[in-house]
Amino acid sequence: MSDIIAKERNNNPTPFGKYGKLHVEGGKLKGEKGEDVQLRGISTHNLSNYPQYVSEETLTTLVDEWGISVFRLAMYCGEADGFDGYATGDDMHRLELEALIVKAVKAAAKLGIYVLVDWHVLLEQDPNLHKDAAIRFFDKICGLLKDYDNVIYEICNEPNGDHVTWPVICVYANQVIPVIRAKAPDSVILVGTPCWSQQVDKAAAAPLPYPNLMYVLHFYADTHRDELRNVLEEAAKAGLPLFVSEFGCCNAAGDGEDNKEEADKWIALLNKYGISFIAWNLSNKNEASAFILPGCEKISGWKDDELNGCAKLVRGYMRS
Ligand code: IDC
Fold it and tell me: Can you say whether the dihedral through the CA atoms of 101, 105, 107, 111 is positive or negative?
């Protein structure tokens, strides 16, 4: 029911007003009329850790002042930084996380932007470890969000470890994708790739047999350079549908120094192929990838001197 998602605000079409419900065709993300769509946005940090930024007020600033068209909800499935994830916490915590996601989707719908619901696999490496929880989660959340055509699902953030090969990820994907499709029949679904979502070449060699899928590549500009850009470009040339659902301008630990020169090269490449991108992370944690400076507790309307260097770079990329 696309009428619950704003198509216009302040006399201008919203992203959803321009593109409507998305699909994947010929290796590209497309709008309702078949036009190419490149989404640009930002990701939350761990939802269990920083729930305060899931608010209409926050999203309004990000849409109006940063120009985002997609908001990613990073819901860790396992424990991280001392916070329970969806699979490792109790039922109360699961309900809180589900409520946060619904709240975010409703706020995004009011603003006419897209939301990415991310099952954030990280420290547990193999998505199959919490597969049962993932199945329960997607079954429930896709039901709760069935009226919202602005939602994209990401089934495993960053599979990693030598034992987590593409066939291992496919075992998981083959069970989780049908669960999503039962409630959200033609939603766009993103699938993470081996080695922290870098080996899109493995997916290109053996893609999954479902329509409306995209494959994920992540980069951190001060760590990943030409070699990984070449992997991305080869896969793009081969016609693989690609989505960069997370990147940072700093190193792969989410910290260190921003590398503007390398980040600029990445964004130019993504723009060349019209690949959507989402920057990590909306929090005030003391790390280079956090957009807000530590000590600033505001959840919206940040001034430049309350923002970290990467936030200013990212804001520029949104508009580039
Ligand atoms: C990092 C956070 C950091 C946190 C850590 C563990 O920035 O504050 O302590 O996770 O929860 C990723 C992951 C993403 C990482 C990020 C930076 O998807 O969760 O966030 N990163 O390390 N992949 C490559 C880098």
Answer: positive
